[in-house]
Amino acid sequence: MPKIDWRAFLNRWNHIVNKSPGLTQGLPNEVNSTGFLGQPGAPDEQISQAEARLGIQLPPSYRAFLQVSDGWFTGTDATSRLFPIQETDWFAVRFPDVLQGWLTGFQMQGEPEPVPEKEYRVYGETQDPSLVRSEDLQASLVIGIGADESFYLLNPRLIDRGGEWEAWFFAAWLPGAKRYSSFGELMQAEYQKVKDWVEEEKEHVRSVRLSGGMKASLPSLLAEFQKEIAKQSQVASGASWIDAPYVQYVRGIIEGLQYGELRVRQIQEQAHDLEEVQPALEALTAELENRWQQSNRAAKQEGQMDMVEQMRLYSAVEGSRQAMGIVQWFLKEHKML
């Protein structure tokens, strides 16, 4: 992979997030007040002290990133961020309960057969997220956290000739990890997520502007639900039988989106003017948020359920969150939220 010019790369990232009302609305106040997703770079001495504390030498792409920005909000939500170097620690030390929950799942379902190295080192869209080695997870360095208990990790058990560590986006709801050959590749993938979101946002704005008022625009709101349901259905239909837990998770998301679509159709049939549509959609947003929070609280009761039930709850969390996000965006576009 070509060497990344981190300053230019992060400036591009920062620019597209700040141009997006939908993304900036979800960021913490301290980020919006400065207009910058990161922090000043970490001094070399501070990075070296962290390396001494951890007993390792950090991979070059991650070290170069820290020299430009000591931490970073991805822009996708209020929580997803890379830690400042002083917060970076071993996953087993900082999040022992999450690690134990995953290992318990392995014990309940049985450790999978060893994966051949050639098969394991498949990166990109064709990789199988469930191919996670428990020993790699236990040894990993956690460098950031995402929404719904997802994590950015570096794997010191797989280092290439250039000193780059394998990098993970890890979440129990995947289930497993999306793996990359380096921290730099992980960051490029996260940047692409933001770009894709912004393009969808722009397309949505165009569709809203072409329609009339809020009542006349409800078909476009339904179209957003249908588009997202179709996308998730395509993901589920393209998965292999090996990915059964992931398919179950995606189907749970689809159910959450279908519920949101059904409720919007009910509003479309029952409401007759703006005075009725707006409060109905605001009430729907509160309803979806409540469903999301209830499922999220239940999913975090890890010791009281098996992984299948936990996966079902995490899919309900994500389905309600996505449905709520679609309705919130519609209200924002009509300057009603």
TrEMBL record:
InterPro entries the record matches: Knr4/Smi1-like_dom, Knr4/Smi1-like_sf
Knr4/Smi1-like domain ranges (all copies): 41-171
Pfam family, one: SMI1_KNR4
Gene3D superfamilies reported in the protein's UniProt record: SMI1/KNR4-like
SUPFAM superfamilies documented for this protein: SMI1/KNR4-like
Domain of life: Bacteria
Protein's name in the database: Knr4/Smi1-like domain-containing protein
